[in-house]
Specification:
By secondary structure, the chain is mainly α. The protein is built from four helices and two strands. It has a two-stranded antiparallel ribbon.
Length: 112
């Protein structure tokens, strides 16, 4: 029973609530940054590089049973059963991470 009492005290403390609020706000911030990268930053970069859509940069590793050939999008490739290496999505994810890491760095720097 002692451990349950300690857990209850921990869960009701401000630290646990602060942590929960931080996680919720962090998840929402991650969603905003993902949209910023995919919808605001990458389209102009893709335009400058000759109308490249980074979310559809991929390599077909294995063609599917349904159809072989060129696929315009990752969705078409997956629909045909192809196995793809989606390096464009990975580039978007790296940029999202860098933006979040920079924002956290600036916040910690400001607080210190």
């Amino acid at each position: 029973m002692g451990m349950m009492k300690e857990f209850k005290e921990f869960a009701v403390k401000g630290n646990a609530m602060d942590m929960a609020i931080g996680i919720i706000i962090g998840a929402a911030f991650g969603t905003i940054v993902k949209s910023l990268v995919a919808d605001v930053i990458m389209p102009p970069i893709g335009l400058l590089l000759g109308n490249v859509d980074f979310s559809n940069l991929f390599i077909v590793l294995k063609h599917g049973a349904e159809a072989a050939g060129q696929f315009a999008t990752v969705a078409e490739a997956h629909k045909a059963g192809a196995v793809t290496l989606n390096y464009g999505v990975f580039i978007n994810t790296i940029l999202s991470f860098l933006i979040v890491a920079f924002a956290v760095f600036m916040m910690v720097r400001y607080m210190n």
